[in-house]
Amino acid sequence: MIQAIQVFCGSSKGSDPIYTKAAKLLGQLLVQHDITLIYGAGNVGLMGVISDEVLEKGGKVVGVIPDFLVQWEVCHNGLTELHIVKSMDERKIKMAELSDATIVLPGGYGTLDELFEILTLVQLRQLEQPVGILNVNGYYDHLLAHFSKMYEENFLKDIHRDMVITSDNPRELLAKMAEHKPIGSVGKWWNKK
Q1: What letters, b where the CB count within 10 A reaches 16 and e where it falls short, cover 57-88?
Q2: Banded pLDDT at 176 (limits 50, 70, 90)
Q3: Of 125, 94, 113, nearest in space to 189 by CA
Q4: What is the pTM of this model?
Q5: What is the pLDDT of residues 92-106, one digit of tens each?
Q6: Which pLDDT value is given to residue 184?
Q7: How many CB atoms lie within 10 A of CB 109?
Q8: What whole-number distance in Å separates Cα of residue 165 and Cα of residue 15?
Q9: 35 Cβ contact partners less than 8 Å away, ≥ 6 residues apart
Q10: Which domains does the chain have, with CATH numbers?
Q11: Which of 79, 91, 3, 6 is nearest to 48 (CA)?
């Protein structure tokens, strides 16, 4: 059962209002399913949209942010719980510790960095959780096509290609993730000796 989902998304809202609409709908669904939002604690862009929506609907939001971003005044001040860490790496570790699943909304370099780190940990069986891509407005079509190319050229195995769960609909994505069967894990990677 998924109790907490880390959501990676842009510190911008993007050029099309459909991205904001999708972030709001995902936030509403998290509250309806009593799922805690774990995210990067930003008050801007899609990060701010989804956190505000969850809070407005009475849900729980846990933010994790490096201290330098707090100094840049992009930290959300109304969260249920806030963790201030020293670095971006520490942020990713803490978010993974707090979550049971990952969803990626549209975003930039940071969003892709977070996605690829989680995918790599799941692939290496150092982390066990479903990873979903909310492909709003076809935003990730090219990336998903590249995943297929990686598979066709024998850089990805079937099991690793298939571990990415995708949908353009937040409700459908959550339903698919709830049915997720893990590929196997050797444990939480940050506790390994």
Answers
A1: eebbbbbbbbeebeeeebbbeebeebbbbeeb
A2: very high
A3: 125
A4: 0.93
A5: 999 999 999 999 999
A6: 54
A7: 7
A8: 25
A9: 2, 3, 4, 5, 59
A10: 4-137+164-180 (3.40.50.450)
A11: 79
